[in-house]
Amino acid sequence: MKQAAASPSSAHPMDDFPVRKLEFNFDNIEFNDPLWSRSHRDFSMLINALGVHVPHFERYLVKTMIEARPKIKDENLQGDMSAIIGQEAQHAKNFLHYNKWLAKRYPKIAELENGAQDFFNHHSKTDSLKRKVGYTAGYETFTFLAGLIILENYDRWMKDSDPVMKALWVWHQVEEVEHGAVAFDVYKALYGDAEWYRKWMVLAALAHIASETIKCYTAMTIVEGYWRNPFRGIRKMGFCAYMLSRFLINALPVFKRSYHPRNHKLVSGKKNTIQIAWRRYEHDGGDVLSINREKMAEMLGIANPGA
Ligand SMILES: [Fe+2]
Ligand SMILES: [Fe+2]
Fold first, then answer.
1. What is the CA(155)–ligand 2 centre distance, in A?
2. pLDDT tens per residue across span 21-73
3. How many Å apart are CA 294 and CA 306, to the nearest integer?
4. Of 277, 255, 273, the residue nearest 264 (C-alpha)
5. Ligand 2 center to residue 84 CA distance, Å?
6. Measuring CA to CA, how many Å separate 213 from each of 222, 244, 305?
7. Domains of the chain with CATH codes
8. Taking phi first (over 0 means left), then psi (-120 to 50 degrees means alpha), and beta for anything else, what does residue 285 get?
9. Distance, CA of 222 to CA of 259 (rounded, Å)
10. φ, ψ of residue 293 in degrees (nearest 5)
């Protein structure tokens, strides 16, 4: 990590990532509507559901990285570990606030979130360091891939959406891509030979993400009344299954021995224009706590704010 040293526009999406201290105001969400994306309301429900347990994983990650850091000899990697600790602490803080806001609409979310908190607290205390680093690297595979997939599909899923929620998710996904190789590198540095265990942890993490997401998503579909028509309920669940299977398909390269996050085709291929534009805009002091169409157009350097 070099604190915002190089120009973000020219860097690899994983280079030079700083800790950004941002605090989002969820009281400003338009119409107080948790289905905040008018481009794709099911997407907002899915991402809300996926996010509920994530701050508790992020705190588990922070504790794991703090425990592992003294064992790492590479100073650059140590620096990246400090940066991921800072970024994830900021994520957790904001997502815990967001969960409180969500629970007003979906009371069951508070209960499900408590279960997630207990799970990660317990495992943080009882797991071996190898398990913690492996599980963290497995999880980070999917937060990183979700970051890439969501930014690539911005137009389809988020273009017309609440400015605070758009800002929150663009920020989170950009940073997940930025630090997407750190936990992987820590695992390789400490347990590089244990390739099967690394792959097993990728599957364990996906199974946990899927079960947490499905529980929260189902609770939300009930509150939204989708099951009054069972066919509608099933169709809504189909979108959840589609998104989770998309994560799995994009995770397939992770099972190659030669895999490294920096070389994933979604990173090394066409670079994500929103990621580059957001990093440059934030680096130059732009306000990224709320992003409406005009601001996104300004960020992307587009004259027409239909962006
Ligand atoms: Fe995060
Ligand atoms: Fe992360």
1. 23
2. 999 998 878 777 899 999 999 999 999 999 999 999 999 999 999 999 999 99
3. 8
4. 255
5. 7
6. 14, 9, 34
7. 36-300 (1.10.620)
8. left
9. 40
10. -60, -40
